[in-house]
Amino acid sequence: MLRILSILLAVASFLTAETPGAKPSFTVGWSVYAGWTPYHYLMQSGIMRKWADKYGITIKIQRFDYAPSLDAFVAKNIDACTMTNMEALDMPAASGVPTTAIIIGDYSNGNDALLVRNGLQMKDLPGKKLLLVQKTVSEYLLDRAMTINGMRDRIKQVRLINTSDSDIATAFLSDTSASATVTWKPLVSQIVKQKGITSLFNSSQIPGEILDLTVVRTEILNRPDGSGQRFAKALAGAWYEMMARMSASGPEADKVLTAVAGGSQDTLASYKEQLSTTKMFFTPQSAVEFGASANLKEKMALVRQFVFDHGLLGSNTKSVDEVAIAYPDGSVQGKADRVRFRFELSFMKMAAEGKL
Amino acid sequence: MSAGVFAIHAKPGRHTTLVLSWFLFVAGVSLYFYTSGARHRENPEDRVTPTVAQMAAGMRDAVLRPAEDDEPLAEGASLMETIRHSMLWKDTRATGLRFIYSMALLFPAVLVGLHMGLFPYVGAFLLRFVLFFDKIIALSLLPILFIAFGIDELSKVMLIVIGVTPTILLDTFNLTRGVPGEQVVKAFTLGASDFDVAYRVVLKQIWPRVLNSIRLNLKAIMLFLFAGEMIASTDGLAYRIALLRRHMGMDVIIPYVLWVALLLFLVDFSMRWINRKLHPWFHEA
Q1: Residues belonging to chain B with any Cβ–Cβ distance to chain A shorter than 8 Å
Q2: Is the N or C terminus of chain B more exposed, i.e. has fewer CB atoms within 10 Å?
């Protein structure tokens, strides 16, 4: 009896004990979007494992729906996550979870679009029904479209109907009383196939404003044992090995792209079509260049004003400067003691210089 | 017999009952504040578990500030005026109207169920189909609902009706079948017509149980209503919750959820009260 008990105890202690040499483990969350689906392939192909082993850590990759992935990141259940610059600002950063963008993956270059029925024009939109997922980049796109067309003061007259993204395509196509919609690909491609629907504005007219990032909690990067730094290096290394494979041409690259598309149950043709409206930063050099440009600050200034105006920083945030953004050159938008979101180029730089 | 604490015959005193019945409330609330406090110590800007002060501030805004899409109020508007332009009022009104419409549409289902149970031809015609239809998960058919009913109020009300009607139908059907056949025979012997039997003998005595069954389905009704509002709408309590979730506005979401619970409790309570007043002879839970 005693023997059985001691064996059981030994097994239990073996199962639960954190052996001193255990590798630090990290989790990356991603959701389906042209610029993020490569994470699926990173896991499938073993590229991520290779880089994690190189840095002596374990990296798990997990797929989420978009909103839950943000919730998980804010709740600190996952260590890194894919999200847009806007959500990085209004979800984790505004909830007091300092966040650092370590990979600037791409920007939407036509993926998001404002679609209308019966050849409506911009000036016809006030008073019309428009379906969109409110308080997301869709509303940002609408806001920018109206502003650029000199109709900023009439935005409130558009009748916005908050519609879940899983149903927005059918809802718009079946309800002819809705005159317009703002949504993203692949839904956009599905909707414009219908007769009489045209695209009035898309994100290629505001290049570089809707960024797709991989972000890490800043506290992870600052871990004293340096495992967080190794995690970021492994991510950047794996990511740019992946980008090199995707951007190659020929049948080999097609095979990779097919596998990537499979991550979202998509076909090669459809995925290529989405990539055509996504400005991917295939090389770390191009991403670093974009991240270091003054352009980035201008675009972020627009985005942060938008999230503040729409109350997305929370009702307690009295000024747009309360959630400050730090840039690679050391400059800060907002109060210097309230930096919650930073762009970090060093990992992409290391990838560019082949130092990973 | 010893009346131990866990014996069926145990008789807890008045104070013990009071303490016991509130214990889980207190435990839940304290656990929440403990977690909230711990999270706020670690991260003062935490939004996942707001403090009481944050929730109070959020709620005050919801009740006293005009809704985002509303015209700004004239200076010096009365308190009542302010409340009527507030977010909470507008949302409650929109959701309440949908709730009332769908309840109104549920009552015909009671009559259909009654007829199914009493009239063999109606039963033969409907029973099998309703049994099948009851098992359809209405939410998964949303695209078809959109095409059939548009994305306005109708589709949300229909979602509830499709989701809850079969349950009410079958329940009424079963209750009707449960009325002893002797009573029906007796009524006929006394010269009642078909409709006398249906409405004055059977319906009269199943009515309190039917009301009870509708009451027990309140939660299903609310569930479908919330699902509908989260999918496509411009107002309503669930619409607001869906929007606030997008930036973790838990300081308003938690009071909203409690408000909905309170409203549901009141509806439930008043239905029980009406049932007791209408049918004082009926004694069942």
Answers
A1: 43-48, 54, 57-58, 61, 68-69, 142-143, 146-147, 150-152, 230-234, 239, 242-243, 245-249, 251-252
A2: C
